[in-house]
Amino acid sequence: xxxxxxxxxxxxxxxxxxxxxxxxxxxxxxxxxxxxxxxxxxxxxxxxxxxxxxxxxxxxxxxxxxxxxxxxxxxxxxxxxxxxxxxxxxxxxxxxxxxxxxxxxxxxxxxxxxxxxxxxxxxxxxxxxxxxxxxxxxxxxxxxxxxxxxxxxxxxxxxxxxxxxxxxxxxxxxxxxxxxxxxxxxxxxxxxxxxxxxxxxxxxxxxxxxxxxxxxxxxxxxxxxxxxxxxxxxxxxxxxxxxx
Length: 244
Known about the structure:
The chain has about 240 residues and is of the alpha/beta class. It has one domain: sialyltransferase cstii, chain A, CATH 3.90.1480. About 40% of the residues lie in helices and about 15% in strands. The chain has helices at about 5-15, 20-35, 40-45, 60-70, 85-90, 105-110, 160-170, 195-215, 240-244, and strands spanning about 50-55, 75-80, 95-100, 115-120, 135-140, 150, 175, 220-225, 230-235. The chain has a nine-stranded parallel beta sheet with strand order 6-5-4-3-2-1-7-8-9. Helix 7 (about 160-170) packs parallel to helix 8 (about 195-215). The longest helix has 19 residues, at about 195-215.
């Protein structure tokens, strides 16, 4: 695990009133379902030393899609709620980071391809874990202690976990798209009105964790979305220069 993660996880448990025992139970169930996991070296080969796009489902995703279409060969790690709009626009994720809250049909469709799924187990998604049986290439993660086939690369929400993943495997550069942390929730996030308050709280925590990661990461960090401390702000027109 990334140094200092246990403290961050303790903070998450306290702030969101989560139950570590339930997180562990979910991870144990996921481990029992995963008959075969993707070798770590396969993920490492896709990320290490490369330019990585991390795509979230924030309000700026609509503006980012035309830019993403231009860079077909760049590795894209996609948070699950962003999978559907990307696939609808002909953009296939290389890696999907998901706690299975995204569009079920889209996840299953992509799961039949060579895309790697990094599926997160936590106390609230036990009933959805059976979905992993539809994914051709899969690895399991947890926020708590890793064991057997269950890893912990760090991170809290799908979006920031994707950044932690890219950093963990030493991406050369990590560029964020659709990763906004304001008071507006993206239309692709599928957030119910009743869940808006907790969603915004999660986004604030996600941003804090990325700022914390920026002090530790060996990767160069950039964002085309809203400003984040430790990430250099980019315009879409600057991507050609940064990627080369």
